[in-house]
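Handout for the seminar on molecular recognition.
Each group receives one record of this type.
Step one: identify the two inputs.
Step two: read the structure output and locate the region that could contact adenosine-5'-triphosphate.
Step three: write two sentences on what you found, then compare them with the reference statements printed after the record.
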Amino acid sequence: LEPVSVGLAIGAASALTGYLSYTDWYCRFAECCDAERPLDASALKQDLEEKLFGQHLATEVILKALTGFKNNKNPKKPLTLSLHGWAGTGKNFVSQIMADHLHPRGLKSHFVHLYVSTLHFPHEQKIKLYQDQLQKWIHGNVSKCANSMFIFDEMDKLHPGIIDAIKPFLDYYEQVDGVSYRRAIFIFLSNAGGDIITRTALDFWRAGRKREEVQLKDLEAVLSVGVFNNKHSGLWHSGLIDRNLIDYFVPFLPLEYRHVQMCVRAELQARGAVVDEEVVARVAQEMTFFPKDEKIYSDKGCKTVQSRLDFY
Ligand SMILES: Nc1ncnc2c1ncn2[C@@H]1O[C@H](COP(=O)(O)OP(=O)(O)OP(=O)(O)O)[C@@H](O)[C@H]1O
């Protein structure tokens, strides 16, 4: 080996180590995209089991979906989850937990994007603008980071035209205009279907069966027949993406009194306050429950618990 090539090799090696240590150092402070970032499945499982109350199906499906997707070294399409259920049952809450486990900064990450229909896409007459904007945002963000996460809240209020603008990114394409979306994650949140989920939960309750006995098949069947595949149902017109692009349907059951109590306790703990069961009972009793005679499920789920606690 003549001295020149040795010198070049050493130069290249030190440049490379220099670069690597620089990026390592830089990424310690700034947030860097880590498309290969592994998922700590047991940490996610523990978080879901400890923090998400009364949603055994959502816990099971989300854990399976995320673990499977992150273990797949060559996914054929982006992961798409559609979360359905009444207000206050944990859809946004669990999206936050998922974001925390996929990107170090969770919802604050530059690689996690939250769109709320009534906020970001409110005007019917601006659909074309929204479609172009959204396609540019998604293209730009995935170009910057392959495992970007997109959360669409209030899907049931999203104009169908905007849903159509999202569809190309969710499909089984190798690439779309030079960018591969197959490591991206799309989460859709919707109240649509909440009534059907509630009816199934109520049937189980009235039959004296445990809530945890409700299985996905009990809901998929009643929903797919009753709602999803029926193009004339309100849910379809609410712009729901046709089923074959959604990998997982995640149902959120209505929350019972005991779950509301758990939310009050969790909020007291989050505030560093002592958990006074007197307060827990009082706040939970302030909530309204349905059906009117049996009063089983909280009308607002765990919503307004935080604000009610401000008065104690
Ligand atoms: N199942 C749950 N387990 C624990 N906390 C919950 C649960 N559901 C709701 N909460 C609490 O209530 C707050 C509001 O819930 P969240 O925003 O997730 O409701 P949502 O289902 O997204 O409602 P909406 O459909 O109206 O957006 C959460 O931030 C969380 O503190």
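Reference statements: The chain has a mean pLDDT of 89. Residues 3-29 form the longest helix (27 residues).
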